[in-house]
């Protein structure tokens, strides 16, 4: 048996293999509500053999959506369809997860196939964005976000807490906090987007406080769920968030009871310089794993079974998270297992295709 198809035991859940579907926005919701597109989209990965499926960035407030088409979990009425999705995923021996998110200054955009830029607050499907500081993401194109007051920060933390409560009620067994890709929590972490002078800005300890307080609030709502955090381990530019700070943060996350750190990179500023190639993000996951001992997931341009297996053999990460390759082939684990010579369970309905 390959490492890729060996199980991974966490405190309350067991991944049947090391392949996890990374969150992928579908821009297909109305007023935050999931529909049959999301059921089929997420469900196909469960029938295709993935160990866990992390649902797209799901907004904890309406203004926290990236676009008007994003999923939301800011009201109880959202729970019913999510229950249907998690039930189906569990029926097919996979673990449902949800990524709780707030887009901050990168909110109020169009759907990427229509217009990926910010929509002005007075236009249809647009709204006023918020952030730690009144700094725009694209200076020539955007309305400045409103800086959150202390009271509004506390309200946002409460929004994450209540969203986690709803996620538990909906049946998700993995709760992932989105602290990456230049969205609100990452905006607090990075000195490039956070120039506050109060307890939420300035020093490293101040800039991570927002995330730590969200974790503390969410932990109060969890029963047997696994708590994960996605980070961008570097801003890919000078004077920004970097690997050293990511390692220091990972130590704090581990102490807070976070089980898995999902290591991505970038997204904080438009002038980042990324040379995207196979394994370009892997050294960050490897360093965090080595320095902290926390369970790490790696992402980015992993498309082949042998490549994924080698990452695990080299002990550079514990979990392989894949997005685009799963879109191209929802049954990717079946093909990876065949390449590696492993025998894994198929749905009875599909066995004649072996």
Structure in words:
- With 354 residues, the chain is of the alpha/beta class.
- It is 32% helix and 15% strand.
- The protein has helices at residues 36-47, 79-91, 150-170, 184-189, 204-207, 209-219, 243-255, 282-292, 305-313, 324-328, 332-340; strands at residues 8-9, 14-15, 19-21, 52-59, 95-101, 130-131, 146-147, 174-179, 226-232, 260-264, 295-298, 319-322.
- The chain has an 8-stranded parallel beta barrel, surrounded by 7 helices. A two-stranded antiparallel sheet has the order 1-2. Strands 6-7 form a two-stranded parallel sheet.
- Helix 8 links the parallel strand 10 and strand 11 (295-298).
What attributes characterize this protein structure?
15% strand; single chain; 354 residues; 8-stranded parallel beta barrel; alpha/beta; two-stranded antiparallel sheet
């Amino acid at each position: 048996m390959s490492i890729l198809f060996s199980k991974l035991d966490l405190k309350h859940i067991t991944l049947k293999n090391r392949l996890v579907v990374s969150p992928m926005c579908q821009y297909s919701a109305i007023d935050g509500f999931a529909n049959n597109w999301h059921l089929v989209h997420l469900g196909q990965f469960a029938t295709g053999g993935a160990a866990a499926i992390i649902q797209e960035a799901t907004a904890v407030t309406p203004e926290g959506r990236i676009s008007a088409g994003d999923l939301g979990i800011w009201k109880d009425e959202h729970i019913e369809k999510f229950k249907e999705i998690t039930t189906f995923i569990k029926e097919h021996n996979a673990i449902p997860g949800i990524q709780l998110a707030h887009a901050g200054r990168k909110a109020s955009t169009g759907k990427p196939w229509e217009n990926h830029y910010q929509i002005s607050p007075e236009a249809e499907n647009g709204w006023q964005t918020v952030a730690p500081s009144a700094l725009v993401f694209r200076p020539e194109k955007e309305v400045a976000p409103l800086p959150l007051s202390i009271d509004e920060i506390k309200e946002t933390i409460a929004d994450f807490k209540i969203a986690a409560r709803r996620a538990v009620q909906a049946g998700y067994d993995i709760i992932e906090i989105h602290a990456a890709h230049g969205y609100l929590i990452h905006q607090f972490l990075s000195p490039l987007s956070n120039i506050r002078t109060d307890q939420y800005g300035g020093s490293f300890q101040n800039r991570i406080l927002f995330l730590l307080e969200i974790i503390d609030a969410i932990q109060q709502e969890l029963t047997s769920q696994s708590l994960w955090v996605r980070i961008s381990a570097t801003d890919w530019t000078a004077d920004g968030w970097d690997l050293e700070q990511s390692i220091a943060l990972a130590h704090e996350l581990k102490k807070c009871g976070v089980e898995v750190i999902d290591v991505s990179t970038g997204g904080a500023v438009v002038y980042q310089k990324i040379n995207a190639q196979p394994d370009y993000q892997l050294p960050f996951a490897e360093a965090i794993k080595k320095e902290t001992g926390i369970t790490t997931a790696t992402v980015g341009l992993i498309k082949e079974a042998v490549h994924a297996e080698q990452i695990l053999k080299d002990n550079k990460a514990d979990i392989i998270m894949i997005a685009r390759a799963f879109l191209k082939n929802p049954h990717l684990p079946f093909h990876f297992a065949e390449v590696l010579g492993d025998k894994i369970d198929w749905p009875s309905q599909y066995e004649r295709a072996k």
